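Box 3.1 — From sequence to structure: Prefoldin subunit 1
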Amino acid sequence: MKEVRAHEVAIGELNSLHPSRAVYQKTGNLFFRKSVKSAVTSEQKQLDMAKARLQKLDQA
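Predicted structure (token representation):
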């Protein structure tokens, strides 16, 4: 549940940034510079995966 909330907060914060601004996204032990749009897309995918795992646990 904490993981889902963290992704929702991250998406909200990214949406508040100006679209032309660059952000740094951690991948493994490295940070990569990306656009806000690609960072939001990545966070949304992670949110969907976390929700799917949570739903799977609820069904078990």
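Summary of the box: The two ends are 16 Å apart (CA to CA).
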